[in-house]
Amino acid sequence: MSKKEKKQKKEKIRYIDDGRTISDMSGVHDRLRWAKHGTTSGFGEIWKTYWNAVRMMFLPMLVVIGFIIVIYLILTIVFWLMI
Fold first, then answer.
1. Which residues of 24-45 are buried (b: 16+ CB within 10 A; e: fewer)?
2. Residue 52 in 3-state DSSP?
């Protein structure tokens, strides 16, 4: 085996500039037109989506509030002991 056979050539990557920007803004006009006319979903769908989001965040919210209460109690006890 020769050195060339052992060492394989790396594939050369070629980048082609097609004139677009990094963030493609081609669909913005259509979305702005729909925003002027309002949403197509009704109150029931909006309420269901909202309630699902609140239900999903309820347990993490309780954990954070519990953590804050525990930290407050620890600091209160520490300051009582210092007096």
1. eeeeeeeeeeeeeeeeeeeeee
2. helix
* Cα–Cα distance, 4 to 81 (Å, whole number): 76
Q: What is the residue-wise DSSP string for 19-31?
A: S--SS--TTHHHH
Sequential DSSP letters for 37-81:
H--SS-HHHHHHHHHHHHHHHHHHHHHHHHHHHHHHHHHHHHHHH
Q: Is the pLDDT of residue 23 over 70?
A: no
Token pair of 58, please?
């309820």
C-alpha span between 7 and 49 (Å, rounded): 57
Return d(Cα 68, Cα 60) in angstroms, integer: 12
pTM: 0.46
48 token code pair: 């269901």
